[in-house]
Amino acid sequence: MKKNWPILVVDDEDVMCESMAAWLREDGYHVDTAPNGQRALELAKSMDYAICFVDLKMPGGMDGIETMMEIHRIRPEASIIIITAYATVDTAIQAMKEGAQEYIVKPCNPQEISMLVSRILKLKKLQSENAILRKKLTRQYRHRDIITKNPRMEEILTLTQDIASLRSTVLIRGESGTGKELVARAVHFSGNRAEKPFIVMSCAALTETLLESELFGYEKGAFTGAAAQAKGKFELANGGTIFLDEIGDISPKLQADLLRVLQERRFYRVGGNQEVEVDVRIIAATNKNLAEEVQQARFREDLYYRLNVIEIRLPPLRERREDIPLLAEHFVHHISSALGKEVGGISASALKVLIAYDWPGNVRELENVIERAIVTCRNGMLDEHDFTWLQQNAGAQQNWEVPDVSLDDLERRAIIAALERKHGNVKEASAALGIDRSTLYDKLKRYEIVH
Amino acid sequence: MNGLYLVAIGSVPAKALEWIENTAAEWFPLPIRRMPSLSIPEGAYDPKRGQYQSVEIMKMLAQCAPRDASRVLGVTDVDLEIPMLSFLFGQAQFDGPIAVVSLCRLHQEFYGLPPEESLLRERTAKEVLHELGHTFGLVHCSDPKCAMSLATHIELVDAKAEQYCSRCGMQLVERFTSREE
To answer: What is the ipTM of this complex?
Structure first.
């Protein structure tokens, strides 16, 4: 438990640093030491210290108060204890004013320091418990976000609770629009990482090199335009969860890099030669059949097994039609209040239309359809005729004479047509196609459609 | 087999060394060996505080450690300090080979009381178990009766039993059965 509260000792005297660190290590803490402010900051960037002991007087470079202020900028939650041999009320007041939690005069009684450390950590434990409890309230909210009475979905929700506090990697499979990100959020916000970051990264939207620097960050000068060091999503997610959407779309090189992160929880920033260590839970999602991708040698088998520790398969909306009325009511309520347009509800005949439709774009498509209906609706109630176009579409699907072309060609034409109809607006075109934006980007890349 | 070496630093009563030898032999399955006593290193004395720097003594022990030493336990009668703390009952390299115990504050005389040999023996045994426990990877224990609980003043030393609690004891056993200590 104490290992979760790392401590940093900053003092220019080696003896002071090492003896203090040794004493604290006997108590079970992870302790690092730094001979000056500069080194302390480097360490603070990679470790979330609970307590920093900082010597007030350090010759040359940054003094204790400057060091404290800089540490606070990187780690606002770290408690700083200023150490000094020259106790004056003035410096004590200044240190406390600048944010030091305590001020101690060396040498001090072992009891004094042991009580000080346990008092600070007691407070920190309360703070983190408080944050977790607050998130538990959020969890109820998050859970309400997943609306279902479908037994398979209910099983999945129970599973998200059971696996929430594990670190095991989760692979979520499901068609576009089935709510993969929502499930990933439910896993993150129900577990012990809830108060830490939840970072989303769509792997399909970016080129290989861009995705690499987005994920792993880069060092200053790593490439043209890299003016300063930047943290990647893995570092930003430290302590929390990273959600890698469209994982089936990453290049072989990134597959290898990702495998290393999964195995060792370490990586290099682009252009960097220093390893960065992170504690991140990975939740990946894909609408592809990865097992098949493995067979086709498009996806590394070892990475697949590393990702697929816990698998969640989300059913498409057409396999949980009983949820359509619930979801429709939910969207009507939310969208109408967001748009400021009063719509009382949705008629039984309209619901029949919605239940009969096949929803290739799943819940996301349903949401878009309801939004469109609300926008065009003239009475205070959504009725069958508000969805006539949907029926026409569905009808058109049934009676449509299929031209004699390949599936790829068909898809390509549909994408171009949608983009033309929406005047190049990718968000709208993807909604019309019933796929998400990242999938559309992926397809644009694949069909080499210059957008 | 590598041994646990016991060494007096400066003048230490022969009786105390015997007590320590018995305590160590009771708990640690290693041959207990004596090293010729060492004098207190010159640089260790801190004239401002009138105490001796534990770090200097630890350094000396590390330098003098025999090649076949699994652990080296220094025993001294002088008062130990580190820059941050006003005194130490002892110090150990966590999960490392070197430890030192000071008898200075274990004597009743230090607190202005008449000497009491049996109490000194008990206290010495407890501190030896505590510091050696650290060298075998034990951290402070929350059970105030366990030798591994943190004592920041003499009353807390007296509150301990002359043994490890079952949890710390099991950890030691595991350590000795799983590694080539």
So the answer is: 0.84
What's the CA gap between A6 and A78, in Å, rounded?
Answer: 10
CATH class in words for A2-124: alpha beta
Over the stretch A166-214, which tens digit does the pLDDT of each residue have?
Answer: 889 999 999 999 999 999 998 998 888 888 889 999 988 778 888 899 9
User: Would you state the CATH architecture of domain A146-315?
Assistant: 3-Layer(aba) Sandwich (3.40)
Is the domain spanning A407-446 CATH 1.10.10.60? The answer is: yes
On whether any CB of chain A is under 8 Å from the CB of B127, the answer is no
Residue pLDDT, tens place only, A335-366: 888 888 888 888 988 999 999 898 999 999 99
Residues of chain A with CATH 3.40.50.300: 146-315
Q: Which of residues 141-160 of B touch A (CB under 8 A)?
A: 150, 152-153
Q: Which of B117, B131, B174, B180 is catalytic?
A: B131
- Using CB atoms, pick whichever of B54, B85, B153 lies closest to residue A113: B85
Helix, coil or strand: residue A333: helix
Q: Which residues pair with A357 in a beta bridge?
A: none
CATH 1.10.10.60 occupies which residues in chain A? Answer: 407-446
Q: Give the type of residue at A232.
A: G
Please report which helix (H) or strand (E) contains residue A202, including its range.
strand A198-202
Question: What single letter denotes the amino acid at residue A228?
Answer: A
Closest CA to B123 of B134, B112, B136, B110: B110
Instruction: List the single residue in B81, B92, B152 with the smallest CB-CB distance to A26.
Output: B92
CB contacts, 8 Å: A18 with chain B: 55
- Residues A307, A313: Cα–Cα separation, whole Å: 14
Whole-number pLDDT of residue A88? 65
**Cα of B12 to nearest chain A Cα, Å:** 24
Give A-chain residues touching B86 at CB under 8 angstroms.
Answer: 107-110
Q: Which CATH superfamily is domain B3-178 in?
A: Collagenase (Catalytic Domain) (3.40.390.10)
